[in-house]
């Protein structure tokens, strides 16, 4: 990869590739001494924060000359505010958070995502009550439900709630979370409208068949047990926690909604990366090494990772609960544990590379449901993605690891920043990040060209 000349060009490096011409993204030049060795990084208690915990516990941060404090945050809003306000130097973030902040949805801040933390890792769980209402309708094989399970089986349940004058409520973790968009995608693929957002609205319930609300991840099982919600989409171990508590049943994992979907990112302020370029590279090198450790030798280190994550200063759930989804299996019910080798991917399949097309997908879902109020051109999607996702910074760190012999050259993609057309979606659609408006027009449920949302519903052609 060609290096860009000088740290002064760092701010423009994200726009330095020419994907239209098919040129590969160039690595930034991030050499130099560590400018800020003492760092505070935030996370939410989820198993996909693992790269941060492993970088700490295996000494990868220390190897890079960094003294890192990892601090759990109460919820995603607190975490976001901490990064924006400077109390946190960086964090395990929802992929949608730096994107939304950059476009000014919810809050305005210049955040970047120089690394993707993982692929997959979420699931959708239903309460025992709802599970019993749909269980007899599900097709079976050898006495077990056939997966993936379509949201269409919820239609009679939603209608029954409505007939009783009740709202069918489900939970997700944040308005711009992967979980929100995955839950919405699954519901819409099954013919259920999850609702639209009006301009400036964070509830997103206009026209909803199923109403979605925000609950912090660790509180999901208790919120469902209390009857406030009838199901939720969340990362692990909080789906497995419902199984172990015998209060709910996971019905679909997110790799069955979109196979190998990008999940969390490592996010930080743009001005931090500009002021501390060598520190940024050092952080990324340590996290990439942790990602490689998590996936090496076909997951041979996962048992140790489970023990580390079970500690109270990290995820704090029982090791047995964490292992039920992180060691190559996934438990749907007691006695129904299935192979799931790809449920958590941290390094393989270029999981760490922050593809522009991943950012574009999140932007399409924001537009689909009204969080982006008006139509945008394809170029707007591309330029916004380049402003936030920073493969140039990822490549700078990854190429240094290649030079040091700590990862292989083949572990680093040579790409213009866009994945090829992707299949593996539950609705059978193909996603091409180069044609976002064409992709948006393919959805049966979702805003179409010229449409916007008002309190009275969707208007426009």
UniProtKB/TrEMBL annotation:
It is found in: Endomembrane system. The keyword Transport applies. InterPro entries: NrtA/CpmA_ABC-bd_dom. It comes from the Bacteria. PANTHER family: ALIPHATIC SULFONATES-BINDING PROTEIN-RELATED (PTHR30024), BLL4572 PROTEIN (PTHR30024:SF43). Keywords: Cell inner membrane, Cell membrane, Membrane, Transport. It comes from Alteraurantiacibacter aestuarii. GO terms for cellular component: endomembrane system. Its main location: membrane. Gene3D superfamilies: Periplasmic binding protein-like II. This is Nitrate ABC transporter substrate-binding protein.
